[in-house]
Amino acid sequence: MVFSASQIRVAQLLFALLGVVFILFKLRPSTTTERVRSDQHDWDNLDAISNETLGVQKVFAINLVSRPDKRDSIILGSSLSNFHVEFLDGVTPDKVDAKSYPYNWNHDHKTTEYAARRAHINGLQRIVHERLASAIIMEDDSDWDVSIKAQLQSFAHAARALQFQDTQEIPTQSPYGDDWDILWLGHCGMSCKTDLPFYLTPNDPTIPMPHHFLPQWRDPPAFEGYERPDHNRLVCTANDGVCSMFYAVSYRGAQRILAALSVNPSGLAEEIDIGAQFDVSLGRMCDNGYLRCFAPYPSITGGFHQAGPRAKSSDIHDETGEEEGFFSWGVMYSTMLNINRILKGERTVHATWGDVDMLDVIPGEITMGEGAIYIPKRIN
């Protein structure tokens, strides 16, 4: 085939343009992030999250029989949010036979901390025993936003996008995706695997301003060259977290945690656990890849403190202090603080703090923006 002079000139021009593009690409800063489309998947089963179990098979709350006041709060709050909770009995040290402690438990920790860990393991045992595909486990001082179902739908879209970003696969088992062990929805600090993509949802009106975040036991998640805007919700592959206030666990995840923290197959405990509290051990399992964990930042759920002495707030630690009023932390439009308004049939709910953009909102009108995946640039 013989090419004309004009065809040759066009080809030369195209090669030159490609060369410029290549050079510009190579000169791009390698410490920033790249935004990519997140809407290439047509997933339509997010409505399952609006059911009475928030898109999982069961929702459990851990509660000591001696604390019916906390059970009252969970039952009433969940009824007003239209989801159903089953209870797992909390564990006290006197109910734990010394022979049941794992061989590697660190006895420098409080006996109440092991009892709390045992209560979570009992919940995982039940998930495995009942063959539940997934379940949520919360602690009995949890609080959640009046828009929790909309929040979880937004989170599910993010978590699924991170799981299936390179494929057209559609989740078949869970609206949250099929390749996860832990969804760490309520925490008091977490960090991300910074070499993996993350998801950012802008204009989320349920995010408190940073000075209202609950006390954090970890620095905010950081990706080199990127800083999260205040009203944007981050979802990432988690490598650590603190506080197991509210989390979802898959059947596979429950099996793996039960193996690691109780059954202790040969050599497994030494790889991932040093006899720590439940949340600390969970974070280590996320960090080393034993579990696949996804988490939002800031935390979606928070906590609630009933009026009375500080001792009412914890069944693990010996809190002391003067009488305190009702308060919620970590939640913009607290379900627990708005119970009276909801029971009265008022159209709006009130923000937890007075210095927010929208002091009163209609719960059904709370919406989140459309998000996108961001891919960290690798340093050449």
Distance between the termini: 41 Å
| Top CATH class | Alpha Beta
Number of strands: 18
CATH architectural designation: Alpha-Beta Complex
Helical segment count: 8
Could you tell me the CATH topology label: Spore Coat Polysaccharide Biosynthesis Protein SpsA, Chain A
Compute the number of structural domains: 1
Work out the radius of gyration. 24 Å
* C-alpha geometry: globular
* Secondary-structure class: alpha+beta
Strand content: 15-25%
Mean pLDDT: 84
User: Could you spell the SSE succession in H and E letters?
Assistant: HEEHEHEEHEEEEEHHHEEEEEHEEE
Largest sheet: 11 strands, mixed
Low-confidence stretches: 1-32, 37-42
Estimated helix fraction? 25-40%
Protein name: Glycosyltransferase family 25 protein
Keywords: Glycosyltransferase, Membrane, Transferase, Transmembrane, Transmembrane helix
Transmembrane segments: 6-25
Family: Belongs to the glycosyltransferase 25 family.
